[in-house]
Amino acid sequence: MEFETLVQSRRSVRGFRNEPVPRAVIEAIIETAKRAPSSMNTQPWHVHVLTGSPLEEVRRRNMEEMVGGAKVKRDIISHGEYQGVHRNRQVDIAKKLFGAMGIARDDKPMRQDWVLRGFRQFDAPVSLVLTYDRVLDPGAVCHFDLGALCYGIVLAAWDRGLGSVINGQGIMRSDIVREVADVPEDEVIMTCVAMGYPDDSFAANAVRSDREHNEEFVRYVGFAD
């Protein structure tokens, strides 16, 4: 698939078929994605691929803890609640998703169910937990590198017929992920990528978020025209 077509067609998938993903496919995806740019070739990233009973334990315990009122316990510093234009964009995509799923504004049980799906990593058959070397903190460069790897993963997956959603909700309790997946203490858990074969009958999978016009966020400096 041509790169521009790949980028334009890719979307977040929030409903997956109950179908396992072969390890060889995941290995091929990572083999492609690891060519992502890396500052000074430091390659600060690690990928922990979970499926089966370990993944089930992570999502069950994560959901139970969060529903039970436990505090978020992530390795990375959170920005807190969004405000202003960032909040507006967050609300906009939520409206699109709830509209597609037929979830009314005052339907609290269904809204809660949607939140629980996020805590369960949308019941995807595979989760790639992305970490970076703790020795490189504090600093944004290693975060940038890991983001590049992450985007490479989701594009390589889409090219192979797999959908994905970058899902911080699924690892709100990073201590549980660390325990179950045996993630070393010298690695910082940043996010996860829930992955599987898309369920085309799941309405939310057809939803695409809007993007601002280039004029809103791009400046050209020094061009003759």
From TrEMBL:
Keyword check for Oxidoreductase: yes
Domain of life: Bacteria
Pfam families linked to this entry: Nitroreductase (PF00881)
The keyword Secreted is assigned to this record: no
Domain Nitroreductase: start-end pairs: 8-197
CDD domains, sorted: PnbA_NfnB-like
InterPro entries membership: Nitroreductase, Nitroreductase-like
Gene3D superfamilies named in the record: NADH Oxidase (3.40.109.10)
Family label: Belongs to the nitroreductase family.
Protein name: Nitroreductase
Organism: Bradyrhizobium cajani
